[in-house]
Amino acid sequence: MSKTQSLTFARVPHSSPTPAAQRAELLKNPGFGRVFSDHMVTIKYSDADGWHDAKIGPRGTIPMDPAAAVLHYAQEIFEGLKAYRTGDGATLFRPRENAKRFQDSARRLAMPELPEDIFLEACDLLVNTDRDWIPDGDGSLYLRPFMFANEIFLGVKPSSNYLFSVIASSVGSYFKSGADAVSLWVSQEFTRAAPGGTGAAKCGGNYAASLLAQSEATRNGCDQVVFLDAVERKWVEELGGMNIFFVFDDGSMCTPPLGGTILPGVTRSSLLTLAKDKGIKVREEKYSYEQWKNDSKSGKLREAFACGTAAVVTPIGTVRAPEGEFRIGNGGPGIRTTELKSALVGIQRGTAADPHKWIHKVF
Ligand code: COI
């Protein structure tokens, strides 16, 4: 547990922020994760002093000793959430869920838990400061809170020092293909997470472990890798960086159940709620690759989509494996996928009512 529950943030404005014309150029077509705002939040932690030295200042490099623990043992966690321009203001979508998951990830990685309110204050402060970096239209300001171990020590143990930070990136769509639907590669050799491992934590290591399989997917002409479970190599788990849903001909839906190996996505949980609101029968249930193949071929499976903060709701059109490929539905966005996406995006962007009080107003 942290020793300090509330902090005062020092504010150091950027002495030469990006000129407005240059920023406008960057925001025209930002893509994903390459355009960064001017400021960043940092908060230090030590076992001796708890959370301290909270600051918002110019975005810049982080000096690090080559023996910093994260560089050797990968004690690192992160989050992803988006700020949306809504009229004259800006909002975040369910940021407390990210704060809680950040604490869950911290516990699993033997790191200190940042109090929820400090996490929220850090995000609000950055959005407020860099409000001009929130793109108009379909774009958003993607916040990336993260924390890593920076004790200078090569012994294998939980670090006694950490740095928490939040940076912000103006983003458009995650997938650059611009296709109506994405294609998936079914990883045969590699799995993402095993029972008892770190699959439910949002830690960099999980993503590092997915990269070789993701490269294989790219080599095979696919947008994303999809992983099967590590024990039976049978059950569909999740994609390289997003959860998955299936839609059937009787109108029902299912998504793989959480159970320690799957990331508990905020988008996933929001879609479960929105589906129930609409009276859709939705199950958190195991679904095998064999069944997926058969249901797609028989037409029982009508739609499938990927979901996550970065991906939002992205239709899945084709699934490829060494033995061949199959198409889902008509290979493009299905009715249910489109309906759920617009329900979600409507709430996120303030164009629809917010019955669950998911919107957090920043300013
Ligand atoms: C997110 O959706 O926020 C993620 O962290 C996934 C990553 C692939 C960008």
Explain this structure.
With about 375 residues, the protein is an alpha+beta fold. The chain has 2 domains: about 1-170, Aminotransferase class 4, branched-chain amino acid transferase, N-terminal domain (D-amino Acid Aminotransferase, Chain A, domain 1, 2-Layer Sandwich), CATH 3.30.470.10; about 180-350, D-amino Acid Aminotransferase, subunit A, domain 2 (D-amino Acid Aminotransferase, Chain A, domain 2). The chain contains 8 helices and 18 strands. Strands 1, 2, 3, 4, 5, 6, 7, 8 and 18 form a 9-stranded mixed β-sheet that branches. Strands 9, 10, 11, 12, 13, 14, 15, 16 and 17 form a 9-stranded mixed β-sheet that branches. The longest helix is centred in the middle third of the chain and has 16 residues, at about 205-220. 2-OXO-4-methylpentanoic acid binds near residues 80 and 310.
In short:
This protein is α+β, with helices and mostly antiparallel strands and about 375 residues long. The chain has helices spanning about 20-30, 70-75, 95-110, 115-130, 205-220, 265-275, 290-300, 335-350; strands spanning about 10, 40-45, 50-60, 75-80, 80-85, 90-95, 140-150, 160-170, 180-185, 225-230, 235-240, 245-250, 255, 280-285, 300-310, 310-320, 325, 360.
Describe the SSE topology.
Blueprint lengths: L9 E2 L8 H9 L10 E8 L3 E9 L11 H4 L2 E3 L2 E6 L2 E5 L1 H14 L7 H14 L10 E10 L11 E11 L10 E5 L17 H16 L4 E5 L7 E4 L3 E6 L4 E3 L10 H12 L4 E3 L4 H10 L2 E8 L3 E10 L2 E4 L7 H14 L10 E3 L2
Parallel strand pairs: 1-3, 9-10, 9-16, 13-14
Antiparallel strand pairs: 2-3, 2-8, 4-7, 5-6, 5-7, 6-18, 7-8, 10-11, 12-13, 12-15, 15-16, 16-17
Helix pairs in contact: 3-4, 6-8
Bound molecules: 2-OXO-4-methylpentanoic acid (COI).
